[in-house]
Specification:
Layout (H helix, E strand, L loop, with lengths): L11 H7 L1 H9 L14 H7 L4 H17 L1
Helix pairs in contact: 1-2, 2-4
């Protein structure tokens, strides 16, 4: 997963503080990590660990990168 601004290498809790819209994108794909109280997993790992398949992962990547390009 290649996310712009090296955001994939950041902890999910840090990403969501700055970019809550990414949480909305993840929730759309039933990734419930948005409400995790630990929040130390890297964003790229959060997506990969759910084993949604290459096509869905590519769609998530595209949506996150489109969002990042718009801010």
């Amino acid at each position: 997963m290649e996310l712009d601004q090296n955001i994939g290498g950041q902890a999910i809790q840090d990403v969501l503080k700055v970019h809550p819209q990414i949480g909305t994108i993840l929730e759309k794909f039933d990734i419930g990590c948005v409400t995790c109280r630990v929040g130390i997993c890297l964003l790229k790992d959060v997506v990969t660990i759910h084993a949604l398949g290459d096509e869905v992962e590519a769609q998530i990547e595209q949506e996150i990168n489109a969002y990042l390009a718009s801010v």
